[in-house]
Automatic annotation (TrEMBL), chain A:
This is CbtA family protein. Keywords: Membrane, Transmembrane, Transmembrane helix. Residues 46-65 have a biased composition (Basic and acidic residues). It comes from Pseudomonas bharatica CSV86. Pfam families: CbtA (PF09490). The chain crosses the membrane at residues 76-94, 106-125, 145-162, 167-183, 203-226. The keyword Transmembrane applies. Residues 44-65 are annotated as: Disordered.
UniProtKB/TrEMBL annotation, chain B:
It comes from the Bacteria. Pfam families: CbtB (PF09489). This is CbtB-domain containing protein.
Amino acid sequence: MFTRIARTAGFTGLLAALLLTVLQSFWVAPLILQAETYEGSAPAAAHEHEHADAAAGESHHHDAEAWSPEDGWQRVLSTTGGNLVVAVGFALLLAGMYTLRSPRSIGAGALWGLGGFAVFCLAPNLGLPPELPGTAAADLAQRQFWWVGTAAATAVGLALMVFAGNWVLKIAGLILLAIPHVIGAPQPEVHESLAPEALESQFIVASLLTNAGFWLALGLISAWLYRRQSA
Amino acid sequence: MPVTTTASHASSTSTTLSQRVIAAVSASVLGLCLVYFAGFSHIEAVHNAAHDTRHSAAFPCH
């Protein structure tokens, strides 16, 4: 059983990460790089802050000199690595679900994939849209907290709506879906962005469609591989 | 080969619900840890390496 999970997750993660990297390199990464040119030319407060930190006392701020990949192959390679870790993680999650509820067809895998897309992308994005570098945003820890809470509430809410036997639980699931959005995502005090708005909206579309494709592939490949192996 | 398949079939029918729940939970926890490590870690070097992954996946960044 564990071998089956590991195999499914490993190969699914590998294939989906490769697809994600290809989609990103052609569509998403160019937008990020373009946004960074605005970030580099504008004297952003964050950058000045970093410089001040570095000047004040380098020994206290190890982070200021943390390794960072150089643009080009290093950056593509480390992004591929990041994608691989995230994809294997999500694939493990799907394979874990399959041991509880085996997908009856590959199409069921697509539904699981869409569920994952809704939980980890669509719902958090309603409150915290994908951001280009150089966009003003609220405190990172607060946003991460809201993001995790929203994903968790959406996962439980969707599961209740799909699998629960009675109407009370289904309605409870629906309410759970709505709660994070009623509370609202943490917002920055001032909305500002260094990159032009057109680039921002282009990025949102690119990120959404890339993630949708990624999750669909993740669901389809994982269900296919899981069904191919006997327990 | 047929011997191993029958053996694994036998084991699949004998896995209890609790065993499957344990497998599902441990796989999920491990998976979430991986996603957390790449997507939410506050370690600067990890952040820098997975920077584009984070932005593209719309994880909160910076």
